[in-house]
Design brief:
About 40% of the residues lie in helices and about 20% in strands. The chain is an alpha/beta fold and about 300 residues long. The strands form three sheets. The protein has a five-stranded mixed β-sheet, with helices on both faces. Strands 10-9-8-11-12 form a five-stranded mixed β-sheet. A hairpin with a 6-residue loop joins β5 and β6.
Length: about 300
């Protein structure tokens, strides 16, 4: 059996799967937003699993950012308390076990490629739209990590084809750059634009509730959101030309996206035909934890 851990900015989730991908166990806890608390939470979950299940073959962890091959320290994590820390080394000491650690978007893409929405495709771009924005590339069921370990990091490319209106809502990203895709299409980015336009203070879930109630401002916010998403994904299609794009993360549950995104995407892709489709994940917003187990 294999343990998978999805280390998110708000929750840490663990599963156990068998060799056929059958889920044996699942549990979520709140992520403590400090380094030692994060390690303590992972250890708590793994101890509980090992107390209940024997014959654990491997432990895989998906996390925002990556463990650098050069320094062995975490880099590029939007859970900024992890950056610059020797997470893999400290987990090995704390657990007295080897662990495999991979970017959470790569884990999500791997999960969907193996037995999810992308199982019948060869080149997959997996997208995380939640607390942050990430991406992962899987080719022939293998993660493409890249020479610099940043393959798929489209969340830190700037919004293309931006309008004067877009510029009004451009802001500095945690990575230090201005106007990153993450600042437009992550949950906090989506809420920032809506709240700034309408002088309100809602999170992304609250905006969706307003949309379901028929509020015009929320309807406009979703139109803008899909347009921003299509602009960003057009860069991915123009460069990678994947078979399919699979959305994951909390915002991937918004049905409005799938009703409009593929038509919007055609506007920005430099091709007279567009066979690539943007589709919803199969394994839900916890797909990344399965990919961590498959590592």
């Amino acid at each position: 059996m294999k343990i998978g851990i999805d280390l998110g900015g708000t929750k840490t989730e663990a599963i156990v799967i068998d060799d056929d991908g059958n889920e044996i166990f699942r549990k979520r806890i709140t992520t403590e937003k400090n380094y030692q608390g994060t390690i303590k939470g992972i250890k708590f979950l793994i101890n509980e699993i090992e107390n209940n299940y024997k014959n654990i073959e491997s432990i895989g962890i998906g996390m925002p950012g990556i463990v650098s091959n050069d320094t062995s320290l975490v880099k590029n994590a939007n859970s900024i308390w992890l950056n610059g820390k020797p997470l893999k080394k400290d987990l090995k000491i704390s657990l007295n076990k080897e662990v495999k650690i991979e970017n959470d978007a790569n884990c999500f893409a791997l999960s969907e490629a193996i037995d999810g929405a992308g199982k019948n495709f060869n080149v997959i771009f997996g997208v995380i739209i939640g607390t942050g924005t990430g991406g992962g590339i899987v080719i022939d069921k293998k993660i493409l990590q890249g020479f610099n370990q940043i393959s798929g990091e489209w969340g830190h490319t700037p919004l293309p084809n931006h309008t004067e209106d877009d510029k009004k809502f451009s802001k500095k990203c945690f990575c230090g750059l201005e106007g990153c895709m993450e600042t437009f299409i992550s949950g906090p980015g989506f809420a920032h634009i809506y709240n700034t336009k309408n002088n309100k203070n809602l999170n992304s879930q609250g905006i969706i509730e307003k949309f379901n109630q028929g509020e015009e401002e929320a309807n406009q916010a979703l139109q803008d959101y899909v347009n921003h998403l299509a602009k960003g994904l057009s860069n991915v299609v123009n460069i990678l030309d994947p078979d399919v794009i699979i959305l994951g993360g909390g915002l991937s549950n918004i049905n409005y996206i799938y009703e409009h995104i593929n038509e919007q995407l055609k506007k920005y892709v430099v091709s007279d035909t567009l066979h690539t489709k943007v589709i919803k994940n199969y394994h839900g917003d916890s797909g990344g934890v399965r990919g961590a187990a498959w590592l």
